[in-house]
Amino acid sequence: MQPAGYVREKELVEFLRGLIAINTVNPPGNEEPAAQYVAAKMRQEGMDVEIMEVSPGRANVVAWLGGRSNAPTLMLNGHLDTVPVGEKDRWQVDPFGAEVKEGRIYGRGASDNKGGVTTIFHAALAVHRAGIRLANPVMVVGVMAEETTGQGTHFLLDRGIHPRQAIVAEWSQAARIAIGYRGRMGLEVETKGKTAHGSRPHQGINAIEQMFEVVVPAIKQYINGLPFTPIPAFLVNGSSASVTMIEGGVKANVIPDACKVQVDIRLAPGQDPTQVREGLKKVEAQIRKEFPHLGITLAITDQRFPFVTSTDDPLVRELAAGIQEVLGREATIIGKTGSSDGNFIVERLRVPVVAYGPGNDTGHAPNEYIEIQDLVNCTRVLATLIPRLAEE
User: Which fold has domain 3-181+306-390?
Assistant: First the structure.
């Protein structure tokens, strides 16, 4: 029997429901119980598995096919942590109840990324059950901290793990291959002004107004004006800057002397974060020159390079062939709007990376869910693909 024949829908559903029930909201993460849960299932089947503690209560789980190696032919990478639940009254189901209804499994992490973790480990399990001896080692990993720093993947790379190619199990849906991601920069901006009575604003310097009348518009103008080459397959092209968090103010009748915002910057493939850093320094310097009495500080808090993998790369071609064989339809090529650990892998190792996995855009939203058929289809495709890529 071919590996795809060992993929069992009921088993996938039960496993994913158990994984969703383990709260791995990051912060704080607490991914170790989820890593142990995955490891227990794989060990029960006789697979070679290890738990890698990254910090107390936080761990990666790794399964090997074809022996252990620091240079596996393929890394399948999914993440165990999730974003917070948010406002619970906006959920129509228990976020950790893993409720099944109308062909879907609901819960925080169902789509991002516990469905993907379920897929990659069970695809590997199907290959193991089929008794296929791989020509080269394949590494399957569930990592911690993808939703924040990417620490789990960095931990692996820091240990010298250098795959020749990688698939991150972020959602694409079964018939689509994501060949790249936009990059991300986290920017923290502070303005310092001068307090005054609310009735005498001319005696103060309003840090909040200056933030949104001067500083943020200058940042947006610079980021939105960055040149880029459109890639038709990408769901969103170009760069963007969005204020996502704000704090400031003293009292309703006091001119505020301080304001702090977080700006989420997204970059298109070809836009270099290092050059953007320099551009932002020039923006800051220009504002200081034009508004000498306004204190301003810009600090980069996070950085991920954008990337795109060629559709001619064997990784993309073989995955597309697997989709055609298993699903009977031609693969659609897309580019993702966000970023993932795939960005770090490409930046550090310069190897081909794609995103492929079950799910949809309900990740990070209330009532997150995954289609069971999508979960099954993706697992079957990857089970078919793994032996082929191991031959490369």
Answer: Aminopeptidase (3.40.630)
